[in-house]
Amino acid sequence: MMEQLVRDLRKEGARLGFQDLGICTPRSSEHMGLFREWIDRRFHGEMAYLARPDSIARRANLRGTMEDFRSVVVVTQNYNQADSPGVPGDPARGVVARYARGQDYHELLKRRLQELLGWLNIEAKKRRLAGGVRGFAYVDTGPILERELGQLAGLGWFGKNTMLIHPQKGSYSFLGVLLVDLRLPEDPRFDTDHCGTCEACLEACPTGALLGRDQNGAPVMDARRCISYLTIELKGPIPWELRPSLGNRVFGCDICQEVCPWNQRFAEPASEPGYQGRPDTDGPSLVELMALSDDEFGVRFSGSPVKRAKRRGFLRNVAVALGNWGSRDAVPALARALDDPEPLVRGHAAWALGQILNRVGIPGDGGFEVAEALLFRLHVEKDPWVEEELEAALRGE
Ligand code: SF4
Ligand code: SF4
Q1: Domain ranges of the chain
Q2: DSSP labels for 244-286?
């Protein structure tokens, strides 16, 4: 009876748009020692919420997050979106990470998980397997190590790029977790590491954020160097030495997934209902993005994960990408951004103009115009950090 319920649960999951569904039993995390070490080494950067003692303790033991639950249902949902022609190769256009090219997945996935819970509740009662089923849905917000649960539920292995990789579907998937108070038959955990001797992701990572496996076989990442962290989570300036490595990535990064042979072989574009890519995140013009006002940013990215970076963080990233493009065509947009109300945007626009100045030289094509814009701003600038950026740009650093 219970086996039939699980078979039907999988069908219902597929009907709701989930790519895969696995079941495991809640237990203490096997990776807590590693997680604590990761926090101790400060690899989490500014993501202080990860280091809070209550959050660590809840990660360590799922039982602390919901009393009386018996099973964990883990689902995946494909978010893969193909690149438009010319992207990411065109440095005048920004690249947004695949997961952020559709609408914000948190709400969508949570709603579907709640629908799944509703179905389970009705079916378990109807089949007289339980008086009812209670549960909680988590999507990237609960204190849960979703990827570890995914592995326990048989959905894939931890790749050296730190992603959960499915052997027939790759890794472009959101993970959602449903904790339920009904005991369901477990799936066998996924124990094989299919990375083998491959190190393609380590070699391709432009910032050297991936550090390989530790002595226990767990993949290690220094999040402080990861472009996803730098362009989304980091609130302040992007470190100088890492700015050139961002290229034209303006929100997140997929490079270590793009080079993964399992994605190259198996990843299919997402076709689930409700997750469509948005044209405004499909290789947008950097010059156009640099001109967005607060209101325009809000309207353009309404319901999009890009809003998480806020306008100031997003335009900081766009300015860096324009500096990496290094074209004269970027100068008018960057020169206007020197007057932006946000110091973070002004400082990165100064850096970007400095990159262009380096390339063309002061007597070169447009060089005088760039130097004049920087000098003029330096004359009126009040923010000490922006002053430093302006001076460094004029010195050609
Ligand atoms: S997301 Fe990009 S920057 Fe981060 S580890 Fe992967 S390749 Fe490196
Ligand atoms: S690129 Fe290679 S090493 Fe990296 S996650 Fe994929 S299979 Fe593993």
Answers
A1: 2-180, 285-395
A2: GGGTTEEE---HHHHT-HHHHHH------TT----GGGSS-BH
